[in-house]
Amino acid sequence: MKLQYIAVIFIVIIIPIVIITTTYINSQITTITLQNKYNTKLTDATYDAIKAFRINTVNNRYSSISDSKIRDIEAAVSTFFNTLTSTGDLSKRDIDAYVPALLFTLYDGYYIYSKYDNVVPKENADGDEISNLNMEIITDETELDTGDAYNTDGLKPYVFYSCRYKDRDRDFVVNYTLDNAITIYGTLRNWEWDGNTCNLTTGYSYQTLSGYLINPNYVEIIDNGANPINWKLKYKYTESGSGGSLIESEILTEHLLFTTTSTDASGTQIYDNGDYEYIVYNGQKIYYDKNETTKSTPYFYYNNYGKSFISNAEYNKDVLSYLNARLSTEADGSHHLYSTNAFEYYRDAKKFSEIISKLTDGISQEDAVDLQGNNIEFDVATGDRDIFVTNDSRNPNDPLLSKSIFDENRMQVIRNSIKTNLAVAIGNYNRYSTNSYQYSFPELDEVDWGKITNEVSVISFLQGIPIGYKFYNNYCVITNNDNEEVVKKDNIYIITKDNTGNNREYHLPGCTYLMNCDFDDIEIERGYSNIDFLRQTVRISEDNNIYFYPQTRVNMIGGRPSKDTKNITACYYCMVNATNVHSADDIIKGEIVELNEQEQEEAIISVLDSRIGTDTQRKALQKIREYYLTALGRERFNLYQANMSGFNT
Prior knowledge:
Blueprint: H1 3-59, H2 66-84, H3 92-96, E1 102-105, E2 109-117, E3 119-121, H4 127-132, E4 136-138, E5 151-155, E6 159-166, E7 171-176, E8 181-193, E9 198-212, E10 219-223, E11 232-235, E12 245-248, E13 252-263, E14 269-281, E15 284-288, E16 299-303, E17 306-309, H5 317-324, E18 327-329, E19 335-337, H6 341-359, E20 368-369, H7 405-432, H8 446-452, E21 457-467, E22 470-479, E23 492-498, E24 504-507, H9 512-515, E25 522-529, E26 536-541, E27 544-548, E28 553-557, E29 560-566, E30 568-570, H10 572-576, H11 584-589, E31 591-595, E32 601-606, H12 615-637
Parallel strand pairs: 3-4, 24-30
Antiparallel strand pairs: 1-2, 1-21, 2-5, 2-6, 6-7, 6-20, 7-8, 8-9, 10-11, 11-12, 13-14, 14-15, 15-16, 16-17, 18-19, 21-22, 23-24, 23-25, 26-27, 28-29, 31-32
């Protein structure tokens, strides 16, 4: 065969292969490029959404109210789509077709943002009522296929983290939260409280009870007398052990900035500011102005960046009685406002936990059923171990600790509820989509489920966008607990100050540096929620915002506040460079553990054993634990949606 024939055959065979290969490689490059692009956009959009929610809740004094919270979430949704379409490649209308759902997990439930039918059957409709709801009236289900007139994007009704439990005589529902608070309602055994213990009586009835679950045997009441300022209790290390952490009344202080101005001692015009003692009543902070003499009471709310004083009127009788009972007169003639919320948290949780342990004895994961009464299968099984009995030493189950039976079931209930409702929402999206792509709920990995079941989060889904020869399909989970939704165990910061009182730092409770401090040189001032260390915004006018931090302190000059404040700084060892921080669970237990060379947990500091750790370390751990448990109880008690005064025990 002649050489030119071979060349022709080579060209005929090789050139198409080269063309096809080049086309395929270019297509793969385009696909990977687009995939990375959408990954970045999805992450950025989800991050901006949770950031918007955080900013709105921190600066919104009414963020715990339902309508205000919905507005904050809707603003976060708008932020998500604005970021997703910021490059201009796709419009809001275009990208909307590829976002089957957004999920916002909150303290005691979640919202799903997705498409839904905005219609009601004509026979069930009241014209005026439907008109007010901006809903369409239809008579034929086939009308749903005519276009977008009968569906809309929006937040679906709020879904609680709930599970039903049923045995031979009891049938009740438990609403869980992101911490150890629960609400139980349904048919339970009748009972009575004799002042110290819960005694079961005959018969069953429908009941509703809410509260915080703890191990009640850890709480020893010392003083619960007529004077709230003297209230105190001990949270022990073990059920029968001596010692423990003292929980008593405390003075809380916060720095506030106002829109009014005055002149400081140096003659400089400044915005009014000051440090004020406060307590929380019915979920709202109430401040005490010790210098106020012109108003009927010295107590005020911080509203619209000003003081809204509580009047001495009949409708304020209860709140004023609560406040006055906690206002002390010291030996030097000064007055202080004492918070008893930490004490009330553990006292009420002890009573609630003892009642629940009696009423739910024997209830386990095997008793969990759906609406039809069928047993529920969870991803992690805990078998027949009691979920809500927390005072049985034979079955350790401390709800304050991670990986307890209660905590495992709490996470499984949240996971099962979200999986079920998200799968339905995303699956139903196929009804509204004009794409050939089949939308479905993806498999989430265990790390992401750990975040979702323990933290406030946003989960976004982006599916069905053509990228080369395949479709883009991904999700993103971003969490953030710098908000007023939840107080996690790691959300408590401990403030220390030196002997001069001028240098103040805040630490994570498991800070290794703090654990080795000699408290003859520094002093623990108090523990506060992490949001008290975030910047607060005061809006003076459209283009004029000023800022303050609640845990800064006023610098007094000539007896008057100056424009300067004593700043508080973050600890380098745990907040700035967190390389080795002990867990909050270790602080609660009073024992610090680390992995040894055999990868087994070994105690290195223990308040129960003088042989483990140094004297300095044990004293530090004991002091840190006391302030930490006080702050944790107080801040959880102060949550609006979990306020103990609304609980029926």
